[in-house]
Write a structure and sequence with these properties.
The chain is mainly alpha-helical and 427 residues long. It has 17 helices and no strands. Helix 6 packs across helix 14 and helix 6 packs across helix 15 (360-379).
Length: 427
């Protein structure tokens, strides 16, 4: 009796798994909107700042606040008063910074010229120009892990350097103006190099030394303006001599209207932002800055000179802040600078750098926003409190510096790379 052996049946190949459907654009966009990435944190910080600003406007207005005393009896009064207050306040900021709708109507009717229409935008660009330089000064240092809080003092010295060359020499404009601008950059760079050299040689923290240098610069300016060398020969007030006409920044829109103050400094600021972008992304020095900022110990192991990087980075940052001073003394302050000419542009540069994430393009955009807030707040007086601009800036910086707070408030998802924050590594 023979036994037959049956060969096993060949295994059937497994059915190929159905490919997962690719997410469509709307789904990807929706995920991006609900994620705490750097772009959305910045956008949500702006929206939250304007929302909180609206609440504070309502609380601070006596009439609107009084309507809430009988809210449950007539809620429409409180809601209507709140809406019109916030709408009119923010509309006044917009019209003072970008475009005045009444002026536009008058231009359409032929009772105003095009220069009048451009005046709010001109003021925004005028206030934004120094912020571009000081924001770049702070942002460049951030990329090396340094906190350049001394941009205010560097700007003051740049302002004085450009001013001295501007009024003490008599040269053709093609030589005089560039020389005055360079003098401002050199003066700011030398002053900015001091905290960098101190950090490289003694370990002194740049925040402490630059804060002290800010005070030194401010007090030195007060003393210098009172000297016979700088003090105006025709004005009894505490104001300096005016710069020569050959060293004055040419205005960009004065042919349309003589009151439009925006000048060639804006072009220099945009060029500086492009140069900083190239420096950080395309040059060997920029690579060294980014490497040291990312991990100074690994950079030292790779043979990079950390102290030299700190010194040169702070000098370059000081030169950028010095250009802000040159823009002031050769532009809007060409008739003579005072102790108030510098305002708080150096300190505002910190907020600009934070909002711009230390990216040159972001810094330019942030400077334009803060310039618009300043121009709008000044133009909207007395209807809108002038402090609303400072308040909005402070709230924006609060949220930008604490992305985890924005994530918690809006219940956003954590991005794959984690929350991105800007920080100086020297603490």
């Amino acid at each position: 009796m023979s036994t037959e052996t049956k060969s096993p049946a060949p295994e059937q190949p497994e059915a190929a798994a159905a490919p997962e459907p690719k997410p469509n654009f709307m789904r990807l966009f929706g995920r991006y909107l609900t994620e705490a990435n750097s772009v959305m944190v910045t956008v949500y910080s702006l929206l939250l700042a304007f929302l909180i600003g609206a609440i504070l406007l309502i609380v601070s207005d006596e009439y609107t606040r009084s309507t809430y005393s009988y809210f449950f009896a007539r809620p429409q009064d409180a809601l209507s008063a709140s809406w019109y207050l916030v709408r009119d306040s923010y509309l006044a900021l917009f019209e003072g910074a970008i475009l005045n709708l009444n002026t536009l109507d008058r231009f359409a009717a032929g009772t105003a010229d095009f220069g009048d229409v451009l005046r709010p935008l001109s003021e925004t660009l005028t206030y934004a120009t120094p912020l571009i330089f000081t924001g770049l000064a702070v942002g460049l240092a951030f990329r090396a892990g340094l906190f350049n809080i001394g941009a205010q003092g560097q700007m003051i010295f740049g302002m004085m350097g450009a001013l001295i060359v501007g009024f003490s020499l008599n040269l053709p404009a093609a030589i005089h103006l560039p020389l005055a601008v360079i003098a401002g950059a050199v003066a700011g760079g030398l002053f900015g190099a001091v905290p960098g050299v101190l950090k490289a040689t003694t370990g002194a923290h740049e925040v402490i030394s630059s804060i002290m240098l800010n005070n030194i610069a401010a007090l030195f300016l007060v003393w210098a303006i009172g000297t016979d060398f700088l003090h105006s020969e025709t004005k009894p007030d505490l104001v300096t001599k005016p710069v020569e006409d050959s060293a004055v920044m040419p205005t960009l829109l004065s042919s349309l209207n003589s009151s439009l103050r925006v000048n060639f400094s804006l072009v220099v600021g945009i060029a500086a932002a492009v140069f900083v972008w190239w420096l950080l992304s395309k040059s060997t020095f920029g690579f060294r800055i980014r490497a040291v900022g990312f991990n100074e110990h690994a950079s030292a192991t790779a043979g990079m000179r950390i102290g030299s990087t700190y010194s040169t980075t702070m000098a370059a940052a000081g030169a950028l802040a010095g250009l802000a001073g040159a823009a002031l003394s050769l532009g809007v302050g060409s008739g003579g600078i005072t102790t108030n000419t510098a305002l708080e542009y150096g300190f505002d540069g910190i907020t600009v750098a934070l909002l711009g994430r230390a990216n040159p393009g972001g810094i330019v955009a942030a400077a334009l926003l803060f310039g618009a807030l300043k121009a709008g707040a000044l133009s909207a007086q007395p209807d809108v409190p002038v402090d609303i601009s400072t308040l909005l800036q402070a709230i924006i910086v609060l949220f930008i510096a604490a992305p985890a707070l924005v994530k918690a408030i809006l219940h956003l998802r954590t991005p794959r790379g984690g929350l991105v924050t800007l920080e100086a590594k020297g603490w």
